[in-house]
């Protein structure tokens, strides 16, 4: 059976109405994402960083999975453990589209982490009012997301899957952020074929055996069928 690793980025959720990072001007309230999504920003201006994530968490209630998410869930039903979806996205649209084998390498909007006891808890509301940690009661909850300069989650599991992969498919990512942007080279070195499905050629498009350009909501169902 073909073992497939799919990497997704903000482009897979764009047609659900979740803004991407770098398409428009990559700014939020005038801040560059790279300047807000950092431990330093959280240390110096926690209210601004909380507002950034609270707004995105609240917006999740108003968006739905699109045909690209649902096509990947259908592929998982056919391939089961031979498919792994690794997402850079922190939304829950893969899961709401029916995928169950999803690795959130940059964390999840609907989770919080306690910097005091390191508990990770599901969290659907705001964090800006600094609620107490449900485990240790300290008011030390942060968004459970991976900021620039922080170690992405589950890299061992991801690189193991890339080593075993026969096919690596990158969907809706600009290839601007590492280590995710290096996965195509890792997969190719392990003998996998590589395919890019993206609106525009990504920064790493020349590393792919094949690239198809267009909207994920049409490219992905077409590829899966
Ligand atoms: C790490 C957080 C060490 C949550 C994000 C100096 C100091 C420290 C580190 C570095 C440094 N210099 C470089 C680095 C590495 C750094 C990095 O890569 N920086 C970049 C800016 C150069 N990386 C890190 O810091 C990472 N950690 O390196 O630790 C290490 C190294 C190796 C091994 C182990 C440890 C941590 C990176 C994680 C940062 N957190 N998010 C949040 O707020 O969301 S990154 C952020 O960018 C999001 O997660 C996002 O997913 C990610 C990538 O963006 P994309 O998903 O690609 O989105 P983008 O808007 O860019 O592109 C959208 C694409 O979709 C476009 O191509 C567009 O054409 C396409 N598209 C649009 N619409 C559609 C579409 N495609 C199809 N259909 C459509 N309809």
UniProtKB/TrEMBL annotation:
It catalyses: N(6)-succinyl-L-lysyl-[protein] + NAD(+) + H2O = 2''-O-succinyl-ADP-D-ribose + nicotinamide + L-lysyl-[protein]; N(6)-acetyl-L-lysyl-[protein] + NAD(+) + H2O = 2''-O-acetyl-ADP-D-ribose + nicotinamide + L-lysyl-[protein]. Its EC number is 2.3.1.286. Zn(2+) binds at residues 114, 117, 133, 136. Residues 1-225 form the Deacetylase sirtuin-type domain. It comes from the Bacteria. Its cofactor is Zn(2+). It is an enzyme of class 2 (transferase). The active site is at residue 106. NAD(+) binds at residues 9-28, 88-91, 172-174, 198-200, 216. Keywords: Cytoplasm, Metal-binding, NAD, Transferase, Zinc. CDD domains: SIRT5_Af1_CobB. Pfam families: SIR2. One of its GO terms (molecular function) is histone deacetylase activity, NAD-dependent. Binds 1 zinc ion per subunit. NAD-dependent lysine deacetylase and desuccinylase that specifically removes acetyl and succinyl groups on target proteins. Modulates the activities of several proteins which are inactive in their acylated form. 2 residues (Tyr-53 and Arg-56) present in a large hydrophobic pocket are probably involved in substrate specificity. They are important for desuccinylation activity, but dispensable for deacetylation activity. This is NAD-dependent protein deacylase. The lineage of its organism: Bacteria, Bacillati, Actinomycetota, Actinomycetes, Propionibacteriales. The gene is cobB.
